[in-house]
Amino acid sequence: MLDKFGINTNNIGYFVLDNATNNDTTLDELAKKIKFVPKERRLRCMGHILNLVAESYLFGQDAKSYDEDFKEAGPGERRKLWRQRGELGKLHNLVAHVMASGKRTDIFQSLQNTKNVSVAAGKIWKLVLDGGIRWNSSYAMIRRALELRPALDQYAIQLKISKDVDDLEIG
User: Which residues, other chains included, contact 119 with Cβ-Cβ below 8 Å and sequence gap of 6+?
Assistant: First the structure.
């Protein structure tokens, strides 16, 4: 394929890649065919580096281990694991709690229509639940929660005084 498309040492540039080791292997093999020094032609993807920094900040140094523990845990244990993540985990649990039943979702949405809690006149917004250890999904959850904070605050207050057993399992 390299010959077919005329790719050689004179017209090949630089490679912007993430930190996966298989990228090093690929460049080593390609360098054998085209004759270049892989370390001189390999650039690190700044987006990937920023992603790693954000994940480390949100999920700690050992996000992979956390992810494995999370996959093995049951629902009650998962809530506890999330809670260990501090404020982000507490928010995750609250959003998951609201979204876990139609009744709770209806209560939350009705809170958006009250006079002191209205977010946007006549509009009902849904919460966004993060999708695991991807920092951008956490960002989307946090952003929406900030937009809906008055309704979330009211929901949390109602949850504290609720006598409904189903509502008490927020963890």
Answer: 112, 125, 147, 148, 150, 151
What is the distance between the alpha carbons of residues 3 and 18, in angstroms, rounded to a whole number?
A: 26
The β-bridge partners of 22 are: none
Residue 120: strand, helix, or coil: strand
Gap between the Cα atoms of 76 and 18, Å rounded: 35
pLDDT in tens, 10-64: 888 899 888 788 999 999 999 998 889 998 998 888 887 887 787 777 777 676 7
What single DSSP character describes residue 42?
A: E
Domain ranges of the chain: 82-168
Beta bridge partners of 42: 15
| Number of CB atoms found within 10 A of residue 118's CB | 14
